[in-house]
Amino acid sequence: MKNQNGGLANIRVKPDSYECTITTDIAVFGYLDGKLKILLTKRSLANYKSHWLLPGGTMDADETVEECAKKTLFVLTGLENIRCEYIKLYSALNRHPIKRVVTASFCALIQPEKHPLVLTDNVESLEWFSMDDLPTHIAFDHTHLINDAYNFLKENLEDKLHFGELLPKQFTLSELQVLYETIFEVKVDKRNFRKRIMQINLITNTRKKKRGVKGGPFLFEYKRPH
């Protein structure tokens, strides 16, 4: 640890303070073909050619990290109006080979089929990867960021994050249970799951029934918090 002597002189903002670059990296999760997937990009980076990484970019002097995250998603993927939830800050000294880089990471949930991706000149490839089948070559410390984002998703699925963003507008309780089992990688008891999911008061019964399914299960909708 750096010498902590020096008192207030070491912690005050000074005009000649060292410069570091602030970036945002966004873990975009989608539920596709019955699997939880994450969106990764492949870019022409000198130090990490043919490597995959999270969508990420630098923050300009006139924007916040939240604005930077949304800007970055649009520039690299074409995604617009996506809700991004802050995860944490990464400030290890050797994160980037060129200079000191501090990153604010974010998490976003979408339905891939409703959000077509746009491949821009800045990106070689955009691809959805299953969380249980990530590519071998991942740039920088993004494997660590991905794992942290996955844990954040599991810990905040009913709090900071809106699980309804992963599902169609209307869904059955069975479909919701499968989503939970996929994310948490466990089998849950049907009766206990339904009792608990109704108690947290995040879904509402439309009283409509799903057609073409045996038993005609009711369709539910996610109640977006105010």
TrEMBL record:
Short name of one Pfam family: NUDIX
Alphabetical list of PROSITE patterns matching this protein: NUDIX
Domain of life where this protein originates: Bacteria
Gene3D superfamilies for the chain: Nucleoside Triphosphate Pyrophosphohydrolase, Winged helix-like DNA-binding domain superfamily/Winged helix DNA-binding domain
Domain Nudix hydrolase: 21-154
First and last residue of the signal peptide: none
Protein name (database record): NUDIX domain-containing protein
The species this protein was found in: Flagellimonas olearia
